[in-house]
Amino acid sequence: MNIPQLSPSSIIEGRWNKNRYEIKEKIGEGGIASVYLVEEVQTRQQYAMKISKDSISINREYQLLKKFHKVDMIVETWGIDDLKLNGETYYYILLEYIKGENLKEYNEKNKLDNTIIISIILIILKGLQTFHDEEYIIGDLKLENLMLDKRNSKLKIIDLGGVVKNGDTIKEFTPLYDRASWKCGERIAEASYDLFTVMIVFIKLLLKESIHPKNQKIEDVIEKLKKLDLDKELENFIIEGLLKNKKSLNFYIKRLKNLYNRERGYQLQKRLLLKEKRVNILLSFSILFFITTIIFLFLI
Fold first, then answer.
1. Can you give the residue ranges of every domain in the chain?
2. 133 part of the active site
3. Given a cut of 90, is residue 229 above it in pLDDT?
4. Which keywords describe this protein according to UniProt (predicted)?
5. What's the CATH superfamily of 100-257?
6. Out of 54, 81, 140, 159, which one is annotated catalytic?
7. What's the CATH code, domain 11-96?
8. pTM score > 0.90 for this model?
């Protein structure tokens, strides 16, 4: 697929709406499209512009964005058009520009405790439930497609290119998050496919290290998971989501809520014990200082 490469400061114009946009920088690239930060020349409004030669994929994603626009996790779309570049026709959609980092970048830079990671997975699962209720499967979900909107403190899905109807074949996927690549199931659009993907996202956030089906088996990943200091029920929850994911997404959401509350209690208990330990150390130091002072005064 011929993906357009545009230079910063260049101006492009929509074929039908005649709106002109200045290219600021490339902010993403996938198998069939490039994403640029652009600024509308007249209004100076900034957008993320997704450009591709594949009109079917672009139109399909636009329709899905419009269909699910009320879902809080979905980026807003501001229009669709096409343009001419070097004599060829390209198609684009204008998306809400989110100033922030994707979840992959954020996780690499920050140490996230288990409570925060569980809350992130809960948000993702609730977002996916909306799609499943409408008989759609996300398919190509990954850390790079989950954006942290720091200004509004929200997590956003920024790419719906892999979304397909329940029962169809998964057309767009990333091997790391694809259960067929791990030999854990077929590339069929069903709830269990999305659940497997979410569990790989979960593991990536917990492990903070490289895993890939090209170099490892799913059993190797599970062994790495078992070496973490996780609550046993949480560990079993993730493994079940990988290997025995036959129950509804709603079942896993309810179960993870309970595990989240347990983890919060566990973390609170750890902080209280640490605080108590610090107080005891300070008290011991104070008593030692008092005794030393008394002995010093006595010797004088």
1. 11-96, 100-257
2. no
3. no
4. ATP-binding, Kinase, Membrane, Nucleotide-binding, Serine/threonine-protein kinase, Transferase, Transmembrane, Transmembrane helix
5. Transferase(Phosphotransferase) domain 1 (1.10.510.10)
6. 140
7. 3.30.200.20
8. no
